[in-house]
Amino acid sequence: MLGALGAGVLACFIWLLVLRFFGGLLTFFTIIAVEGVLAGFAWYTYTMWQTKLAAYNVALGNGVATDALKYDRDTALGLFITCTVLASVFLLMIIALRKRIRIAVKIIKEASRAIGAMPMIILFPLTTFVSILVLVAYYLGIAAYIATTPDVTNVSLLGVNATIAYIKYFQWYHLFGFLWTLAWLTGINQTTLAGAIASWYWTMDKKQVPSFAVTKSFARTIRYHLGSIALGSFLIAVTQLIRVILVYLQRHLAQANNRVAKIIFACLQCCFACLEKFIKFINKNAYIMISITGDSFCTAARTATELLVRNAFRLIAVDFVAGFLVFLSKAAVSVGIAFGLYALLQYTNAQGLTQTQFIGAVCILVWVACWMIVSGFFGVYRMAIDTIFLCFCEDCERNDGSDEKPYYMSPDLAALTSVKPQGAPQIATVPVKTAKMTQVKKS
């Protein structure tokens, strides 16, 4: 099992190398495969609808048509229409966004180059993972102390005796602190990764990447941006705490058998779940912009949001292509490792080399562990893609490819923009300082 997990780590590095050189081909193959699957489902549901329709017409002619046959016919027709609409809409999206999909492919390849230039960036999330483990252990320990404390407790503070009633309600305070700190650690991880990737992008000569980029980005994050990250993580923690309170109230009201209350709480859960995802999206892009410009959280969030709104169609293409490619990569590596372990154990059992019991359970456990490892690897890759995309959008708006304002993007990516580069210098320089980028030196 440990060997399989080690093979999963090695497979992640190999897969990232494959994406660096064959990312474009794999992305276009993925898009074509998705369209083929949707078209296949449409054809299958069409044949199923024809079969159900023929069966219903025969039964109708014999006078034995039933509501069940009619229901099957209508269901098959609905599935056929749905699959056809999805396949058609996806095909139209590919045609309409073909240029932006090409930009997405180039950005994915740029992210692969950035990670290839800083391979140690893959290991940085391990520090966040260890910190989260320590935080969870601390939370569980203090929660156990609070849970086993009497409701009324006499304490002595600075020589003054006091009585604390209902101390168990401090569980909510402790839970909020846990959620806030968890989001804060995640924000530090995202800002550090974004800062390292941004330092690679805003270097004119990509062969002269700043040394110890990840370490320097982490130092800048700790020195300048902890307050901004604390504000963003506070918003996430408040939303998550509200969701926990709603779940708590739902469980206590479950015995009331009030359907109206259940519907209201379900709608509230859905709304706050969407709000949490939206805040996480805003926070991630704000952290990226903080790492680029050094602005405060609110300023960076507004700048990033306005930048994404102005590049909405590019965002749709990049988000869809990158999200699906990362999911496919995670599934391919984790499932491949689990299947390889299953085949190996079957072979060793057949040869009498091992006597492994419950091979399926062992492989499922390895698949879950491998999925977690792969998610950490490709989480860095997805963060790199998002950072490169925001840097690309900012680069397009600040520069025009002339000698005075050269692009910092690669020539392949610059060739896809509306203004072609006009002989950008090939020496390493500091990013162009503008009024909006006054703190670029420390970012």
From TrEMBL:
Subcellular localization: Cell membrane; Membrane
PANTHER family hit by this protein: CHOLINE TRANSPORTER-LIKE (SLC FAMILY 44), CHOLINE TRANSPORTER-LIKE 2
Main location as per UniProt: membrane
Role: Probably involved in transport through the plasma membrane.
GO annotations of cellular component type: plasma membrane
Name under which the protein is recorded: Protein PNS1
Organism, scientific name: Allomyces macrogynus (strain ATCC 38327) (Allomyces javanicus var. macrogynus)
Membrane-crossing residue ranges in chain numbering: 12-44, 76-97, 118-146, 182-202, 222-249, 320-345, 357-380
Record family assignment: Belongs to the CTL (choline transporter-like) family.
GO molecular function, one term: transmembrane transporter activity
Keywords, sorted A to Z: Glycoprotein, Membrane, Transmembrane, Transmembrane helix
InterPro entries in the cross-refs: Choline_transptr-like
Recorded topology in the membrane: Multi-pass membrane protein
